[in-house]
Design a protein that fits this description.
The chain is α+β, with helices and mostly antiparallel strands. It is 28% helix and 38% strand. It has a six-stranded mixed sheet, with helices on one face. Helix 1 packs antiparallel against helix 2.
Amino acid sequence: MIINDPAVHAEVAAVFATYEKALTTNDVAALDALFWSSEHTIRYGVTENLYGFGEIAAFRAGRSPVGLERTLERTVITTYGQDMATASTLFTRPSMPPGKVGRQMQTWMRTPDGWRVVAAHVSIMLAPAA
């Protein structure tokens, strides 16, 4: 197994950038398309635990489009072979309380339809001391 094959890494970095744009512009159709449409897909959010694509899509459809802009820091994408990858990042938003930082982790899988998120976790914590 090759870790961080440059071609695979470039693919995942590109789809991660597509996801980020869709997230910050509230492009619900694009976000839905980037998640694996399966009952096995899971997304743990700051205030929700979503099991299966249906719950994830329903959450996206009902989410407020206000205040989604954010700044990413320390984004790390790691690929495992040709078909699996993780993307981890820290983020801040103007709407977040001072001293807080967001964390996002995603597991991406290559499917016949392209790269899809199969598991995701988002949380907020106190920012570590500098």
